[in-house]
Each structure stands twice: as structure tokens, then as C-alpha cells.
Amino acid sequence: MNNSDLLAITREFGDPVYVYDAEKIISQYRRLTSAFKPVKQLKINYAVKALSNLSILKLFNKLGAGLDTVSIQEVQLGLEAGVEPSKIIYTPNGVSLEEIEQVAKLGVQINIDNLSILEQFGSRHPKVPVCIRINPHVMAGGNTNISVGHIDSKFGISIHQIPHLMRIVENTGMNINGIHMHTGSDILDIEVFLYASEILFETAKNFKNLEFIDFGSGFKVPYKEGDIETNIEELGEKLSSRFNEFCKEYGKDLTLAFEPGKFLVSEAGKFLVKVNVIKQTTSTVFAQVDSGFNHLIRPMFYGSRHEIHNISHPDGRERFYSVVGYICETDTFASNRRISEIKEGDILAFDNAGAYCFSMASNYNSRFRPPEVLWYNGKAHLIRKREEFEDLTRGQLPVELELSEKVEKKSLKS
User: Which candidate, 285, 288, 265, places its Cα nearest to that of 359?
Assistant: First the structure.
């Protein structure tokens, strides 16, 4: 998928538009499975929250992946995409017991991360297999908002609460078939990940009927040329060896599970926008585009970096620009970034737009959400239409308001 392909997509489907390269998704999936070839039983559950389009879920289903879900709606999307319930794991946080019970009826793997719900669910449904999410108290992740395994995190059951956890399991007679952790996103030091894994192995020894151990994910992808990323190959070699060793100690072969999202789809995505205005101020040159944080919130929310390329004139003289959106408040994609000279009407491409970009999009300022396009077998396939005005008003129930004469007079006086 080259610049001419991307420009053709904007001509056919308009801008802004999200584009996903299916071949990159496939290659990332195969890279991950290849890294853990020494493991007898490997399961990759794609994290639906990263990018939940049905066509993407169907692609992962064809590759043999399962799904990692965090809401009943994500479970329902997976089922709609044709994924078998047994290939879906549900890992919510802070949801009601009623939602967990509804999901359990659908036949998916339940993963519980707090003692209160564990005790209630186990008392009512002791025969339903349950995975337990452990908080290993390990700080990992590239931003405090995406570090979820530390001691102050709302996620998981503390390793210091294992005795209490065991009492609940014994008193209810629950069937615990899996142990899970997730330390955070953008993991750089695999030694930290391996250290957390040892905590998970030690915890697993408390349970005699496990079928799998889920190590979460959070693998870092490169955001710019020369950027560092999680060394999947080294992690695969070291963790596979340790996992196989643990299985011998445990007495049976378990399934090693992961739930990557960003690693699989981030680099596959491009977000294409058009430059509306070049605005020169006393200190800055702004490239103002036909989008904003309503479509791509990560730079404003996480401070995340997305490389930006002028694909209309890629070989032009580089200049410094601040790329900003059209939302009516501070709305910055990049500050003082070197980009090939930009003219009004040029198309800019944002890299790493596959994960947590469209899935976090909104209708703020009553703007439409963009279409999504899947590049597959050398062709562009529309997989989500651009929203229209009817999409903004769908579900709204206008009330006919008739103001009395007294109210109208009072309003005029004030």
C-alpha cells in the first residue's frame, strides 16, 4: 500500500478516512505465533477494544485467533463476526454481577478481577469455569494511564490477597481454570515482564485444575523510524522455555495465552486527512486539517506520537509545522514537526492509526465519524460508511416544548 494507493482511497471515499492494511495485520500475527513456536499450546486472543470493526474481527477469526473482550457488547460483536464463544475471553473491570452472568450464559470464558464479584459469582455459579486476574504489583507501561499492574491500580486481585482468594475458592467450590495478568502497555524491558511472569507462575501453583495461563500483552510497537519496540523474538525464546519448564513442574501441558491489540493492528493503520488552511502566526506555522481529537484523541489524551507524512508532496523541502485540528478547543496532533512542505489541499497520512484511534472516536462538535477502509489483496474495501446527519439524530427523542406566556415574559425581563 503506497502513497498513490492512499491518495486514490481519499479520492474514492473522501477524507478524513481510516485505512487498514490486512497484510500487515497478518504478518504481525504470524510474527507473534512464530516467536512462541516452542510452546505446545498457544492461544492469541485479539483485544477487541483496539479496533472493533466486524471485518477486522472476521480476519482474526480466519487466522485462528480468539478474542479478548471487556464488555458484553464486545462479546456480542465477536459472536456477530462468527467467533465461537469458546474462543472468547471476557475480562471486565468494575461491571455489575448481572452483566457477568449474562456473558456467562453466552458460553464465553469469564475472567474476574475482584474478590467481591468472585465470591458472589462463585456462590451462585460454582460449576462455571472462571479465570482469575491477578495484580502482580509490577509497574510497566509507557504512560500512567496505561500502566495497570502496579499496586495502586484498579485492575486485578492483589497478590497479597491470595489467602483470601483461596478461601473464597474453597468455600464456594469454584472451578478455576485460568490465571491472568496484564501489567500495562508499551512494555520495553522484557525482564520486567519475565519477573511478573514468575509471580504468575508462583500463584498458579495454588490451583490444581488450570487449563491456561494468560500473560496479557502490552507489547510496544515503534512510533517513528529507529524507535525501540518490545523484542518479541527474545521474549518468545525466554518465556517459552520457562513456560515449558513450569508445565513439567505442574504436571500437565497448559495453554499459554496472550491478548495483544496494539501489537497486531497499530502499524497496519493510516489516518488520512486534508489540509484546510496554512496559518502563519508570529511564532508558528499551523497546518490545520479537516479532523481533530474527535477522530484521533491519543496525542491529546496520552501524549502519543504519530508520524505524519505529506503524501501529496513527499519529496518537498522539509519545514516545521504544528499540525492541528478543527475542534473548538486546543486540538494538537503534533508541534513543530519536520514535514515535507505543506500546501492547502494536501493529504497528510498519520502512522500507527490502527489501534485505539477509531475505537475512541466521537461526535464531539457534532462532527461525523470517518469511514474505515480495509486494504486487502491490492484493493480497497469499504468496511464502515462515513456517518451522515441521520446518524447524529438517531435515537434522540425530541420533546415538543410550549412555553407559557408568564415564562416568556419572565425570560424577556431577565
Answer: 265
The grid cell for 282 is 508570529
131 catalytically annotated = no
Judge whether 329 is annotated as a binding position.
yes
Q: Which residue has the cell 504489583?
A: 137
Confidence of residue 196 (pLDDT cuts 50, 70, 90): confident
* Helix (H) or strand (E) run with residue 33 in it: helix 22-35
Q: Is 364 annotated among the ligand-binding residues?
A: no
- Out of 131, 247, 328, 357, the active site residue is 328
Per the CB < 8 A criterion, the answer to whether 363 and 369 are in contact is yes
User: For the segment 310-350, what is each residue's pLDDT rounded down to a tens digit?
Assistant: 999 999 999 999 999 999 999 999 999 999 999 999 999 99
Structure pTM?
0.92
User: Can you tell me the distance from the alpha carbon of 140 to that of 127, in angstroms, rounded to the nearest whole number?
Assistant: 35
Q: Cα separation of 58 and 64, whole Å?
A: 10
What are the structural domain ranges in the chain? 22-265, 269-388
Please state which architecture CATH assigns to domain 269-388. Answer: Beta Barrel (2.40)
Residue 133 assigned ligand-binding role? no
- The residue length of the chain stands at 414
Class (C level, CATH) for 22-265: alpha beta
pLDDT digits (tens, 9 = 90+) for 207-256: 999 999 999 988 889 998 889 889 999 999 999 999 999 999 999 999 99
SS3 275: strand
Distance CA 70, CA 77 (A): 12
Orientation angle between helical segments 190-204 and 232-250, nearest 10 degrees: 20
Do the domains at 22-265 and 269-388 have one common CATH topology? no
DSSP labels for 146-212?
Answer: GB-SSTT-SSSEEGGGHHHHHHHHHHHT-EEEEEE---BSSB--HHHHHHHHHHHHHHHTT-SS--E
| Strands (E) located in 284-393 | 285-289, 308-310, 318-324, 332-340, 347-350, 372-376, 379-384
Residue 192: band (very low, low, confident or very high) from pLDDT cuts 50, 70, 90: confident
